[in-house]
Amino acid sequence: MISSLKKHRFPFDSIHEANTGSRQGPLSSTSNAPDHQQISIQLSQIASNNPHVKLVRESDCWLISLHMQAAIEPDAFASVHTLIVEQWQPEAKARCVVDLHEVSYLGSILLGLLINIRTRVRSTGGTVVLCGLPTRLLHVVRTASLDRLFDLYPTRTEAMKSF
Q1: Is 74 buried (19+), middle (13-18) or exposed (0-12) by CB count in 10 A?
Q2: Strands 53-58 and 151-153
Q3: Contacts of 123 by beta carbon, 8 Å cutoff, 6+ apart
Q4: What is the pLDDT along the chain (163 residues), one digit of tens a residue?
Q5: CA 85 to CA 113: how far, in whole Å?
Q6: Which one of 59, 99, 108, 133 is separated from 162 by 20 to 30 angstroms, measured CA to CA?
Q7: Rounded distance, CA 109 to CA 113, Å?
Q8: How far apart are alpha carbons 104 and 30 in whole angstroms?
Q9: 100-138 b/e (C-beta count within 10 Å ≥ 16 → b)
Q10: How far is residue 6's CA from residue 4's CA, in Å, rounded to a whole number?
Q11: What confidence tens digit (pLDDT) does each residue in 56-83 have?
Q12: Who contacts 31 (Cβ-Cβ below 8 Å, separation ≥6)?
């Protein structure tokens, strides 16, 4: 198990790259008007093999739906992290909703992923909100003081209307 952990990048491995923009993923856009529909299709194709994440463009914002249970394998989490932190390049002033209604465990790795998503989006001048937190996970979010970093909404619809 330890040897398999060494070959994967985890959330905190890419903080410097995400903050400095020194690493460009294959889905980055250098034009002023990125084709959001095409990017969404590319991301959907990449994510289609990953049952733990859905990343799509919906209306005028990005929607990241996480589907994670208590025991997620390191390989599975590494692929989620790669998709979101290394390949997804949000546009300027991106709006992002992270839907957590299918998350049953919120440990340090997932908390780190949420922080990385926030860092990535805020570096564009954008906003990230969380929605769908089960009641017991809401306590974890508040204990970790993430309610100071993210606006929280009970449903996806309310979160998307917040923009």
Answers
A1: middle
A2: unpaired
A3: 18, 19, 21
A4: 333 333 333 333 333 333 344 443 434 334 444 555 555 445 544 444 566 788 888 888 999 998 877 767 777 788 888 888 778 888 899 999 999 999 988 888 888 889 999 999 999 999 999 999 998 899 989 998 999 999 999 999 999 999 9
A5: 8
A6: 108
A7: 6
A8: 37
A9: beebeebeebbebbbbbbbebbbeeebbbbbbbbeeebb
A10: 5
A11: 888 889 999 988 777 677 777 888 888 8
A12: none
Helix spans in the chain (H): 2-6, 15-20, 36-47, 74-81, 108-122, 135-143, 156-161
Q: Measured between alpha carbons, how far is 32 from 151 in angstroms, rounded to an integer?
A: 28
Q: Which among 162, 92, 107, 87 is positioned nearest to 131, based on CA atoms?
A: 162
